Amino acid sequence: MDNAIQLTDDLIIGKGRDRICYAHPHRKDQCIKISISNDKQSKREVRYFKFLTNKNVNLSKISTFQGTVITNLGKGYTFDLIRNEDGNVSKTLRQCLEFKKFTIDDIQPKLINLRKYLIKNRICVRDISPSNISCQETSKGVNLFVIDGVSNANVNPLTIRLERLINASITKAWKGLERKLARIEKSLTRKK
């Protein structure tokens, strides 16, 4: 454990149901995801990223898996960390909407482009939520990246191989995103 990467609470970027995400203390361009109870989600993502990489899929709008590391908290899975042009960690879509950086209507064209990107590149996303989309701020505007939930959404291995099933998976996940965005919009309207 002497060579283990030391993760502390001040490095926490976000917490999900299954994992905690930390900024990598030695690599500015990476984060480390630590499983809370088991590695099931991380292992599923690793398998799926290997599949996508072997097929030479365009992963330019995805926070991709970079490898595993040993930390003081156990095995960690490293991924790209999305940062703004100024070097700060990019906020999630949920955070940007709650902080009123822009409205859902403002970001809608970017969301449509992200959906088209996923369909064109046949990338399944198990959970497209406002917390799993990062909004990178640049001088040219906002770039969206999927930062979590990229994996086979089904136990059926054909789901990630057949275009019709991939599109159905993306459509289903996207409807879930639209419901979550509508709830956020409704809660923000009530706060006015």
Outline the structure in words:
The chain has 192 residues and is an alpha+beta fold. It has 4 helices and 8 strands. The protein has helices at 40-54, 93-98, 104-120, 163-191; strands at residues 12-15, 19-23, 30-35, 65-71, 74-80, 91-92, 133-138, 141-146. The strands form 2 sheets. A 5-stranded antiparallel sheet has the order 1-2-3-5-4, covered by helices on one side. A 3-stranded antiparallel sheet has the order 6-7-8. A hairpin with a 2-residue loop joins strand 4 and strand 5 (74-80). Helix 3 (104-120) packs antiparallel against helix 4 (163-191). The longest helix is centred in the C-terminal third of the chain and has 29 residues, at 163-191. The chain is globular.
Task: Note the main attributes of this structure.
192 residues; 35% helix; five-stranded antiparallel β-sheet; 4 helices
How are the secondary structure elements laid out?
Blueprint: E1 12-15, E2 19-23, E3 30-35, H1 40-54, E4 65-71, E5 74-80, E6 91-92, H2 93-98, H3 104-120, E7 133-138, E8 141-146, H4 163-191
Antiparallel strand pairs: 1-2, 2-3, 3-5, 4-5, 6-7, 7-8
Helix pairs in contact: 3-4
Question: How would you briefly describe this protein structure?
Answer:
This protein has 192 residues and is of the alpha+beta class. The protein contains four helices and eight strands, in the order βββαβββααββα.
- Can you give the helix content as a percent range? 25-40%
Q: Termini separation (Å)? A: 51 Å
Morphology call: globular
Order of neighbouring strands in the sheet with most strands: 1-2-3-5-4
Number of helices, counting only DSSP H or I runs of 4 residues or more: 4
Biggest sheet architecture: 5 strands, antiparallel
> Regions with pLDDT < 50 over 5+ consecutive residues?
none
The count of strands amounts to 8
Radius of gyration: 17 Å
Query: What class, by secondary structure content?
Result: alpha+beta
Mean pLDDT: 92
Element-level helix/strand string: EEEHEEEHHEEH
Beta strand %:
15-25%
